[in-house]
Amino acid sequence: MPASSSGAPPAFVQSAPATDGMLAAMDALGTRVAAVRAEIGRVIFGQPDVVDQTIITLLSGGHVLLVGVPGLGKSKLVETLATVLGLHSKRVQFTPDLMPADILGSEVLDDDPGGRRAFRFVPGPVFCQLLMADEINRASPRTQSALLQAMQEQRVAIGGVEHRLPRPFHVLATQNPIEQEGTYPLPEAQLDRFLLEINVSYPDLAAERAMLVATTGSAEATPVEALTADELMAAQALIRRIPVGDSVLDAILGLVRSGRPETSDDATVRDFVAWGPGPRAAQALMLACRARAVLDHRLAPSLDDVAALAPPVLRHRMSLNYEARAKGITLNDVIDRLIGRIG
Question: Using an 8 Å Cβ cutoff, are 239 and 291 in contact?
Fold first, then answer.
């Protein structure tokens, strides 16, 4: 179990298998997560679901894709998370001319005082704990796929040599709606590496009013660190130990498998889904449900967690065929139909 920077284990780390220790660890983690939410709430207005789902992703050890039009605070959320969670962060602005080496790094040829030449690796911005991939779909698929190995294996290979990335490592990518000019769709393999796809919508009137007052004055609220990187890794380890009941496990498996046209007994899925979610979707849903239970100060996930998290887990792991689009059937319609079968 990772230790905190002070040398002592964080308060919510269970060091013994006793049930009381597990409960105390979860309770302590819930308290710390509440502090994280409060700090983020001082800066981000009117997006409670977005904030919660992003925290769930990080507690689950995954990557998140934030989808929305420009100007909704996606970049500000990532910047705030880096501060509140005590993570070393870097930002890459994705543009059509961005190259994979601009993300991963490259080898340069150096001359030493003796006249000898040797290659030296210069790390790229991916060597951080929280990488913000801003407007990721404005770069070509070739550049987008440069993150595949980093997201899956937390290491990159340059010139035949593998380099480990810092821990924890998370990618928080922002994406403009694909219909906007100058965007490229993300490769399906890379989409599958994102634990959740979170839709960021416009704030309501009250939240936008509060944001307007808070951000146009002489001073803006500044978040403070509420969790350390070591504590985040300890929390991720604890999340994986939370028990999951058979009913929740069966619901997750049933939901994911019923979304595949090859194994579904739903005629709508068989007729209109081109390809469905793979096993990584079930893994993501299992971890996310555990993290959501911690957020709500519960000891185990429930069927409500499965229903609430199914859309952000599935919407980027499924695709409809042309017949569905011709008939006006949307992916949300299909996912809602699958959720209705839970329980």
Answer: yes
How many domains is the chain partitioned into structurally? 1
Locate 30 and state its tokens. 């819930």
8 A C-beta contact, residue 287 and residue 306:
no
Identify the CA nearest to 255 among candidates 319, 343, 190: 343
Q: DSSP for 266-329, please give it.
A: -HHHHHHEEE---HHHHHHHHHHHHHHHHHTT-SS--HHHHHHHHHHHHTTS-EE-HHHHHTT-
Phi/psi at 330 (5° precision): -105, 165
| Residue at 129: amino acid letter | Q
Q: Is residue 319 part of a domain?
A: yes
- The residue type found at 322 is Y
Read off the pLDDT of residues 109-141 as tens digits, 9 standing for 90 and up.
777 777 777 777 888 899 999 999 998 888 888
**Packing angle of the helix pair 279-295, 303-314 (nearest 10 deg):** 130
Residue 260 resides in a domain: yes
How many other C-beta atoms are found inside a 10 Å radius of the C-beta of residue 138?
19
What CATH number does the domain containing 277 carry? 1.10.8.80
Q: Name the residue range of residue 277's domain.
A: 244-343
- What is the model's pLDDT at position 198? 93
Q: Which residue has the tokens 């965007």?
A: 183
Tokens 């308060």 identify what position? 11
Integer Cα distance of 174 and 154 in angstroms: 20
- Give the sign of the dihedral formed by CA 264, CA 325, CA 313, CA 139: positive
Summary count for the chain: helices (H), strands (E): 15, 11
pLDDT tens-digit series, residues 19-48: 667 788 888 888 889 889 888 988 888 888
Establish if 264 belongs to a structural domain.
Answer: yes
- Does some domain include residue 154? no
Structure tokens at 190: 């890379």
Average pLDDT of the segment spanning 71-96: 87
CA 300 to chain CA centroid, nearest Å: 21
Position 214, amino acid: A
The answer to whether residues 284 and 313 touch, using CB atoms and an 8 Å cutoff, is: yes
